[in-house]
Amino acid sequence: MDRERQSDTSDSETTDVRRINQQPGIREGRYDPNRFRLHFEKESREEVERRKKLAREKVLDQMLDKDLEVDINDIYPTEKGLEFPRRPPWNYGMNREELLRKEEKSYREYLNDLHSRNPPGSLSHFEHNLETWRQLWRVLEMSDVILLIVDIRHPVLQFPPALYHYITGELQKQVVVVLNKADLCPPPLVLAWTHYLQTQFPHLHCVCFTSHPGQPYSTVLQKKRMRKKGTCGWGHAGGPTHILKACQEITAGKVDLSSWEKKIQRDAVAMGSEGEQSEEGADSVLVEHQSDVAMEMSSPSQELYKDGVLTLGCIGFPNVGKSSVLNSLVGRKVVSVSRTPGHTKYFQTYYLTPTVKLCDCPGLVFPSLVNKQLQILAGIYPVSQLQEPYSSVGYLCERTPFLSVLKLRHPSVEGPQHAPKGGEKEREQGPEHSWTAWDVCEAWAERRGYKTAKAARNDVYRAANSLLRLAVDGRLCLCLRPPAYNDQREQWESHPDLAEIIALQGRKEEEGAGERDEEEEGESSSEPEEERDRDADDDDEDGDDEDDGFGHPAVKERKGPTSLTVNMFDVLRENECE
């Protein structure tokens, strides 16, 4: 029976679904690359046109810091029934086809119930591909401890309470939430989010993590992070030791994790002087591919740590950095890394040591009430496939000081585009000019030299995509805050654990002030630096760090007197070390 056709039928009978991230056709003897591609609900043409018109007309109003505070109960209210599909009961007397039909029927009932509780348009984008949900079921069944990986910039968007309660309640397993990309947030905010999640979920283990300690972006257009000597390479990630300690606490001596601890130490020693791991220092990695039959007809094991092996399941939304965490834990690159949502397409297990193995699950978007524009800024929806990116740009600009960061000139001001200086900045960006999302995109297109092929007009669509990619990558950083954060800011800025977070990020306490002073002295770098900052929104051809897969041909940045130098914490409107 055709599995792809089965899933398509079960989806389309309930709602109109758009299938995105289409990959090249199936090759003989190869795994179907489209089996787990993202399935999201289609938006009507009328809704897309309405938002496009609004982006042209609505004047942007700067939001207050208080407006960035988000409560998880507003994203996942219990009364809305925002559950996730569960695997229906089964027994070994069923054959494969019968099991699949039962799963599809149960999934249709789940979607019908979800849509009956929530009016049309109220739900966020969420996964409609049953095949991907099946992968989640298998990982949950196989794993002893679940690593739920979230982006520290907006963790409540990616932490479904229903999943947590199912794992800790029905499955009787432990959850470790990995607050990834910790280097993109000020240390006080990292501490505040950790405290908030532990308060909301007392049995939750929280671990901060970064794959790029001490590798900040020096400019908003920088293609790759600055690599300080001795800080690049998977073995220098900040956080593997913390995950080990959390697992040691959970297993309580039932599994021998000494081999894992020794591996972390070996990985640190094996890194060369420039941060690159030598071939002879790299451990071999055993990769185990799971067949369909093995995944579908396997019973959930009630025995934890079977045969003395700890199985860690890596689960998370798209683009939270699951593959980067896995690579950092292994100590070498075993999974390709991409900023494209839904990049991990298949089920694999990796033996970290003889007593520890990792299961990597494709990214899954759970249903919620989060704003769809915020979902896009969180990297959940592929930027290159947006029909209307302008409203998301407006949402971003209302919550960040975009004018001071991007050095834009209003489209109504005649003359060549360049970065304003001194009094000119006030004349061109003063209060007499009102900005819409469309104005921002047009000004950015002019600033970057994006032109349409035939008429040579400003390419506002490409400019909008460029700005959204800057936000997704963390070069134009939007961080949400937990409730009451602004009232308690001083408490977090003087917290005794602050030094530990700064060390994890690979920063020095005086770095924040140094960056701020440098920016105030001259808001630009030299002309050669702007030359080095290639088209930052275009895709990385080597596919090693940021392989979007939907990029445009690179357009060389025009030389100008000013580069877009930015302190990441100025974008957040706070100094990291105050």
What spatial form do the alpha-carbon principal axes imply? globular
The secondary structure category is alpha/beta
N- and C-termini, Cα separation = 62 Å
CATH class of the largest domain: Alpha Beta
Textual characterization of the structure:
This is Guanine nucleotide-binding protein-like 1. Possible regulatory or functional link with the histocompatibility cluster. It comes from Hucho hucho. Residues 421-431, 506-515 have a biased composition (Basic and acidic residues). This protein is of the alpha/beta class and 578 residues long. The protein has 2 domains: 38-68 and 371-412 and 433-477, no CATH class; 72-217 and 233-269 and 283-370 and 488-508, P-loop containing nucleotide triphosphate hydrolases (Rossmann fold). It has helices spanning 3-12, 45-57, 72-75, 96-117, 130-142, 161-170, 187-200, 240-251, 258-270, 292-296, 322-330, 372-377, 390-397, 402-406, 422-429, 437-448, 460-473, 489-493, 498-504, 511-521, 527-532, 568-571, and strands spanning 17-19, 39-41, 145-151, 174-180, 205-208, 286-289, 310-316, 348-353, 356-360. It has a 7-stranded mixed β-sheet with strand order 5-4-3-7-9-8-6, with helices on both faces. It has a two-stranded antiparallel sheet with strand order 1-2. Strand 3, helix 6 (161-170) and strand 4 form a beta-alpha-beta unit. Helix 7 packs across helix 19 and helix 13 packs across helix 17 (460-473). It is globular. Mean pLDDT is 76; it is low at 1-15, 226-235, 277-281, 291-295, 422-431 and 512-578.
